[in-house]
Predict the 3D structure of the following.
Amino acid sequence: MPKQVKIDEVTGLKERIGRASALYFFDFTKLPANDFNVLRRKLGESKVTVRVVKNRLALRALTESGVPADIEKLLTGPTSVVFAADDPVAPARTIREQMKKMAALKVKGAYLDQVLYAADRFDFIAGLPTKHELRGEVVGVLQGPIYGLVLTLEGLLSDLVWVLDQIKDRPAPAEAPEQSGAAPEQTATA
């Protein structure tokens, strides 16, 4: 019979997994404690949680949460899990940035959008645009046609004002002399 502490740990992990938009798994074996704390602090700025997990308990929580059973191959040796909250890509960028400074930091893989990614796909994930960048791109795409419509309407209005101004400045036509009501005589040739 499992101990209550382990049951509580699995339950807590399942809750975190349910709230997370992405999970990143990394090995911290040869990483000095100070570097690991720096990494935690940097990731904390992105509003993510870092937990060192026991592989068996993590595997149970992950499989009960619907993560594919292939996740087991990532859970070997000491494992830390990054639980991304809002933006699934921001932690990957932070981890990649810290990997340049900390050679001992090794990514094992990621679980993002219900897809399991191996470590070799990590650079691809870290290169994706963040939510904030995507929102900016969408606004730019939507703004383009609206901006074009405004410029077109503005051009039409300025053309109309120009035409009305030209009509106003044009001299009035000279009045033709009045003709008498009699029609000109025609000669009939028979």
Notes: The chain has a mean pLDDT of 84.
